[in-house]
Structures are given as C-alpha cells and as structure tokens.
Amino acid sequence: MSAKGGEFVMKRNSDAGPSSFVGVDIGGTKIAAALVTLGSQPVLSNQTKLPTPATEGAEAVVGAVITLVRKVLGEAGVSPLAVAIASAGVVDPVSGTIVSATDLISGWAGTALAQQVSEAVGLPVYVLGDVQAHGLGEHVYGAGDGYASSLLIGIGTGVGGAVVEGDSVRFGANGAAGHLGHIPAHRAVGIPCSCGTSGHIEAIASGPSITRAYAEATGQERDAKTVDDLAEAGEEAAVTVVTEAGLATGETLGALANVWDPDVIIVSVQAYPGEPMRNPETMAQIAHAAQIGGAAAIRCQGLADIAAIKTRVEVPVIGLWKEGHEGVFITPTLRHAVACSYAGSDIVALDATDRPRPDGLTLAQTVAALRDQGISTMADCGSIEDIRTAAEVGFDILSTTLSGYSGSRPKTDGPDFELLEQAVAEFPELPIICEGRVHTPAQAAKVMEIGAWAAVVGTAITHPTSITQWFGEAVASA
Length: 478
Prior knowledge:
The chain is an alpha/beta fold.
C-alpha cells in the first residue's frame, strides 16, 4: 500500500508475502481501528473502537485516532508498515489533509490529519475518503477482483463513489474524483439535496430520499427498507418511488460509463436507515445472549458480523456471506467462502444446490479447495438430491436451509420435516441440521425427535419485527 501524486495503491502482496498496516475508519458516531494484514485475503485483528467526539472538534477526533492507533500498535506483536485512514470528506491524497467536509465533525475541513497522526505515532500515514477506501478494497478483494478498472457507487444514507484503475484510486486534480452524490440528475430537479442545493442524484436515490418521496406520495412514514419490500410486493406508490430512484441511478452510471468506460460498475447498497438490528455490535450482543441461553453455535451473515461475533462467543461460529437475491447467493464463490473463514468462521455455510455458481467452479471443486485449506463446510440444501450430492463431494455438515427457496420443493408452513426425515434416514452417520422456518420450541423439539443433529433458529430469535408481527396477527385474529 502506498500513496503517490493523486493515486492510492493497494496490492494483494501474495507473492511478496503478507504486509501489515494499522487501518482506521473515522465515522460520524464511532472510530474503529485494527491491525490489517494484506495477503491473498485481508485479515483483521486487534480490533478496537471509540465513540467519535464529533461535537468537540477536529482536535478531539484526531486525539481519539491517535489513541486507537497506539493501542493497536501496543497489542500487534508485529511492526506495521504504515497507518491507513478512511475519512469522510474530500481528502488531498498527497498531504492527507481534509480539503472539505460537512459539519458532521465540527471543524473537520482543513485538518492536517496525516501529518498530525504521523508525528504522534512515528509511522507514515495515508488518508483517503471513506467511499474511496470502500472502492479500493472492493476492487482488489471484492466484486472488482480480476478487472483492470472499476467504478463503485455506494448508496446508503448518502451517495458516494470511487474510481479505481489497476490497483489505484483516482483522485483527480483536487481530490474530488468519485464524489458522485452531487452530480445533477434531471429526475431530481427541484428536489432538495443534503448539500443545501437541489437536483442531485443523492436527492432521489439515497435511503432518506426514498423515505421522503414515499411519505410525500402516500402520507405514510416508512423506512427505505420497508418501501423496498412494498415495491417487491407490487405496491404502486413504492414501485414508482423505487423505480425513479433506480432509473436516476442507472442514468447517472450510464453517463459515467460513457465518460470513463470502466471494466465493471459496482453498486454497493449499505444497510437502510431504520434497520436498527443491522449492526455488527448489535448482532454480537444478540449472539452473546443466545450463547448464555444455551445456543451450541451461532450462524451469522456478513464479514463484519462474523468478526464481531467471534470476539464475543466461545461456541463455534457458522459464517456465510450473502451477495444478491437470485440464484446462488449464499457464499456463492470460493472467494466468498475463504473470506468468511478469514473473518473468523469455524464453519463456512454455502449454497449446495445444483444451480450454476458465479465463479464457474463446480460444487465439488469449491469444497475440495476449501478442504485443502482446512476449512470446514456446511451444505445449505434445497432437496434430497442436493443432500446426496453434498455428502458425496465431502461437506462436513448437511442442512435443509434452502428447502422451499431453490425451486426444488414447495415452501412448507414451518420446517420441512419430510426432507429432514429423508436425510436422517439416508445419512445417519453425518451431522444433519434442520434450518428454515423453525419458529417455536415445539418445532425445534420435533426436529430433534426426528433425529437432527441440531436445529438452527433464526428469525424467531434475531428479528423482532417479524416476532412482533406474529403476535400482532394472532391478537388481531382472536
């Protein structure tokens, strides 16, 4: 990793061997730091964090960053090459100074961040924008892996972006390349933007913008995730709002593609506002509580959740990485599976149906490669044929996770007891887990009576929205 004249370079270092850095992410509510080892996959360790003293000013924020970096250095056991910081705002890539920023952090614009931290910790310090850091990591290790160039747009509370070519983020003459949120969009004309003007893509495509547009159309307050769910269900107002946001985003990306012609465009949609449970620390607390309640293992989704939960529980962690919503999207490729292992998974769960895998590998090739690396696997199956194939190719654990979701079997009201009985009868020597729609203690007890090795209970423990709806529907029908 290095910075030079308008570029920020990151390489896998797989040939030269791994190299370590202290990574820092400065957010509006918290500052996180960790030792990051870059090799064939990034590995995080010695993770730590502090609340962001945003209202106390830039000096307090820089002081918190220095405190965290010193803590990581004191615990690392190795000598990192440098400190790499991701921060909100427009960054001068050469000096590491914050050129401009919103008022989220008081007095942040003009802060000589790299210089101050470097003088305090005695290491080179490189700084880039938070979405640019996201884009660089995605290009080298994620969806852009294998492409010469990529354009990333990040859609969440706001809209940001990054331009990456080779192994380098492109900043432009003033460090503002990739700041896509405030590009004019004709569909947003007259719509107020967070920057104080109107007519920008962020004003129509961001999560808060979708929430606002739906409220204006219907008079009902709904968070962006709910609007998206309503659109999927065909609700007219939601379909209109989401379609307008999607068309505006597509038109913006199409224009940018004509200007730059990247090999791949990556759309990164972050957790919607209004989803309070979508937070690694929250999920780690739930996992800890589940362990206290008697859980024998924790199954969790996403690298951040896996890493956070691993530090809070002593039981095995079954990790997976969902990408997309169609076809094979549960840990869909070998790369996803290896990343789950690096994040801290003791067992990696992946789609074991007969559908084609995005990386072109067969299921047998994927499992063999994971076994060669000593990675234990759990097969998410949708039919008895899937279970037979999974047993044949060498999965360590077989499950009924995708029954009713892969098109091979109808979706049952509750667990697929019939499939579980078939699996237990044919493979009594293998661990069979029942997963999918286990919503009550009685259902879990029946699963164990049939002969399952274990039952996975998900929604009934971790999704208060669904649990509340169940009770509400029961009360309403009484």
